[in-house]
Amino acid sequence: MKNLMILLAVMATIGLFSGDGALAQKKMMGKGGGGWGPGTSYGRLYNPQTVETIRGAVVSVNQITPMQGMNGGVHVVVKTDKETISVHLGPAWYIENQEVHIAPNDKIEVKGSRIDFAGKPAIIAAEVTMADKVLTLRDASGIPVWSGWRRR
After folding, report:
1. How far apart are alpha carbons 86 and 63 in whole angstroms?
2. Residues 60 and 132 in one domain
3. Smallest Cα–Cα separation from 76: which of 122, 19, 134?
4. Short-list 75, 99, 97, 91, CA closest to 31
5. How many CA atoms lie within 13 A of 88 on its CB side?
6. Phi, psi of 38, rounded to the nearest 5 degrees
7. Checking DSSP bridges between strand 84-91 and strand 73-79, what pairing results, if any?
8. CA 110 to CA 136: how far, in whole Å?
9. Residue 151: inside a domain, yes or no?
């Protein structure tokens, strides 16, 4: 009987610790997380050394899931004088709640980090300008504005 009580106590302790981890993971997948944060595999793709500015017309606006396990996001395909390129904006819940709404045929300017994504060039946007409206998505080091966390 004593061994059974010890076994139950050990199992309950293990259950408490593993439950907290699962809860913490769910919290990170909320609006500030979902795989879009600065410390995630996707977030680390942003490289301040590869920042450039492109100008062009929006060909399409689509929802994507850049990497397995991430929440859905929004990206636009932009046709410039030189190329047609995918521009990753951010998580859908954030983009859809902004005052700047991007649609096909809009003329935009995008400042962001050029990356290689799934074997093709893409840009992770830091700032999108359309007419006199500016949509700020990341700071100079690539930290997303939706993360609510800033390095000091």
Report:
1. 12
2. yes
3. 122
4. 91
5. 27
6. -70, -25
7. antiparallel
8. 10
9. no
Residue pLDDT, tens place only, 65-84? 777 887 889 999 999 999 99
Same domain, yes or no, for 74 and 140? Answer: yes
Residue 116 domain flag: yes
Q: What is the CATH number of the domain that holds 131?
A: 2.40.50.140
Give the total number of structural domains in the chain. Answer: 2
**Token pair belonging to 103:** 């649609």
DSSP-based three-state secondary structure for 27: helix
Could you tell me which residues come within 8 angstroms of residue 151 by beta carbon, excluding any fewer than 6 positions away?
Answer: 141, 143
**Residues 10 and 53 both lie in one domain:** no
13 CB contacts (<8 Å, ≥6 apart)? none
pLDDT digits (tens, 9 = 90+) for 87-106: 999 999 999 999 999 999 99
| Structural domain boundaries, residue 10 | 1-30
- Give CA separation, 2 vs 11, 15, 91, in Å: 14, 20, 52
Whole-structure pTM value = 0.74
E-state strands within 66-140: 73-79, 84-91, 107-117, 120-130, 133-136
Looking at the structure, tell me whether residues 133 and 73 fall in a common domain: yes
